[in-house]
Amino acid sequence: MVYAKTKDKEEWKKHVTSMCCVLIASLIMSVNIKSFVRAGNLIPGGFTGLSLLLQRSALEFLGVSLPYSFINIALNAVPAFIGFKMIGKKFTSYSVIMIILNSFLVDLIPVAPITYDPLLVSVFGGILNGIAIVIALYGKASSGGTDFIAVYLSNKLKKPSWNFVFGINVVILMAAGLLFGFEEAMYSIIFQFVSTQIIERFHQRDQRVTLFIVTSKAQLLEQELMSYTHHGVTRLEGQGCYLKENKALLYTVVGADEVKDVVHLVKALDSKVFINTVKSEGITGRFYQEPLE
Predict the structure, then answer these.
(1) Torsion angle of C-alpha atoms 198, 200, 201, 202, degrees rounded to 10
(2) Contact 169/49 with Cβ under 8 angstroms?
(3) Which of 83, 229, 239, 258, by CA, is between 20 and 30 Å from 107?
(4) How many Cβ atoms from other residues are within 10 Å of residue 203's Cβ?
């Protein structure tokens, strides 16, 4: 009974965290579109950019003013359906909420340009866009569209795939260049590149870190590590060359977002432990990752 209450409390806490992240990310992304993106006539990547591209094309060539919310929600219907099937229901549900919130906020928030300098717009707009996506991903949500592709590939390949999605976005931006001029398209590519690098740098869920742990309390540590992280641990016996003491080397790979907690746990169990942290460029084989559900 107590366990069930604790579990419900944790689930509720996760839900509140996700909703707060979705709300904050939607607000940042919407303000960014109305302050930086519109000021520089940029076309950001993904379905956000595609929505703006279609909205602008309809106005320029047909004289029809289409609401951003209608286009963005319609375009994201198919990716959202695929997300439910391929990624997870909770992740996709939070993403759908963000898509809807962002769509209507863009229509409601007035245009408020901060600067018209195209380079400043590209760089700072890209930073804000990247921050918004990182916050959404922390809350186990996304801005939809190509973000679904990036998350799916990252889960499948066990490594970040945002630069691959950046390549897809460049194709969209080149199409925009053909319609509205390549100068705006090139600034849009800078915007998207900056945004992608922010995500790669700060979204750590898809990054892997190798830990080499030298300890004299191997049996205690290995059990606690496997229980806490759900990752496997390899134990190698050895001897310290300085004091000639028997030691064990524990080798394990964890997510970059888990490193701080794991190091804290290990040091609490063995105050004399030695830990070497190495970034893993890629891994092959089974690797546990907390599901997005």
Answers:
(1) 80
(2) yes
(3) 83
(4) 23
Give per-residue pLDDT as tens, 3-36.
345 556 767 888 888 899 999 999 999 999 888 8
Q: Which amino acid is at 137?
A: L
Q: Which pLDDT does position 3 carry in this prediction?
A: 37
b/e per residue, 246-279, with b = 16+ CB within 10 A?
ebbbbebbbbbebbeebbebbeeebeebebeeee
Q: Are residues 216 and 191 in the same domain?
A: no
Look at the chain and count its residues: 293
For residues 163 and 33, the answer to whether their CB atoms sit within 8 Å is: no
The verdict on 164 and 223 lying in the same domain is: no
- pLDDT at residue 103 greater than cutoff 60: yes
| Residue of 203, 210, 209, 207 whose CA lies nearest to 159 | 207
CA distance 259 to 263: 6
What does the DSSP 8-state code read for residue 44?
-
CATH number at residue 228: 3.30.70.120
What is the chain's mean pLDDT, rounded? 82
pLDDT tens sequence across 62-81: 888 888 888 888 888 888 88
| Tally of domains within the chain | 2
CA angle 117, 101, 199 (to 5 degrees): 55
* Confidence (pLDDT) at 2: 41
Residues 144 and 264 in one domain: no
- In 3D, which of 116, 98, 112, 73 has the Cα closest to residue 23? 98
